[in-house]
Design brief:
Distance between the termini: 17 Å
Low-confidence stretches: none
Helix content: 55-70%
Strand content: under 5%
Structural class: mainly alpha
Length: 73
Amino acid sequence: MPERGLVLVTNTTPLIAITAATGSLDVLNGSVGVLLKAKRLGYDVSIPEALQRMRAQGIWLSEQVVRFALTQC
């Protein structure tokens, strides 16, 4: 597992919504983007399970964001 450092998390939900609405979803920021980056860095992250848990907790994710995330893992 990679060495852990400090992580800055900001609320980018409006940016994600705008990005998804405009169809320019080639780079993803926010919670899902952090999960995808963690996966790329070698952390043991199940993207489908994480997305399901986020939705179960009431976090709204557009279908386009979910589809994009699933194609990246």
